[in-house]
């Protein structure tokens, strides 16, 4: 029987994987924006943004959904929100079976 990795090994692997997984997550959000041709896409280390994002968020926060939908259709923004978790899906698929 093989010995399971120690807690320290798991901690180190998680620590090293964090930047990669974070970048993959943000790329998932960014990919949706590219697919819908949103203007001014920018990838930051821990976020992705677009040229008119501040105005869009201001309108959403003030409950002006009609004006916000003129900037980006709300269904596209919803897809962008789930794009991050989709971006990290491939990275999670392999780590569940490491101790088998």
Description of the molecule:
Helix 1 (7-35) packs antiparallel against helix 4 and helix 2 runs antiparallel to helix 3. With 100 residues, this protein is mostly helical. The chain has helices at 7-35, 53-61, 65-71, 74-93; strands at residues 42-43, 48-49. Strands 1-2 form a two-stranded antiparallel sheet. A hairpin with a 4-residue loop joins strand 1 and strand 2 (48-49). It is elongated. The chain has a domain at 39-100.
| Residue-averaged pLDDT | 82
Main sheet: strands, sense, barrel: 2 strands, antiparallel
Shape field:
elongated
Would you identify the regions where 5 or more consecutive residues have pLDDT less than 50? 91-100
User: What's the SSE pattern?
Assistant: HEEHHH
Strand order of the largest sheet: 1-2
Determine the N-to-C terminus distance: 10 Å
Q: What is the total tally of β strands? A: 2
Radius of gyration: 18 Å
Strand content: under 5%
Give the proportion of residues in helices. 55-70%
Structural class: mainly alpha
Instruction: Count helical runs.
Output: 4
Task: Using brief descriptors, characterize the structure shown.
65% helix; 100 residues; mainly alpha; disordered C terminus
How is this fold's topology laid out?
Blueprint: H1 7-35, E1 42-43, E2 48-49, H2 53-61, H3 65-71, H4 74-93
Antiparallel strand pairs: 1-2
Helix pairs in contact: 1-4, 2-3
């Amino acid at each position: 029987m093989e010995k399971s990795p120690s807690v320290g090994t798991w901690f180190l692997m998680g620590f090293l994987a964090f930047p990669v997984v974070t970048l993959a997550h943000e790329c998932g959000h960014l990919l949706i924006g590219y697919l819908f041709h949103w203007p001014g896409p920018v990838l930051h280390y821990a976020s992705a943004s677009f040229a008119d994002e501040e105005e869009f968020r201001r309108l959403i926060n003030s409950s002006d959904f009609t004006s916000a939908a003129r900037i980006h259709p709300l269904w596209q923004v919803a897809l962008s929100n789930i794009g991050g978790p989709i971006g990290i899906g491939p990275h999670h698929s392999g780590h569940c079976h490491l101790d088998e």
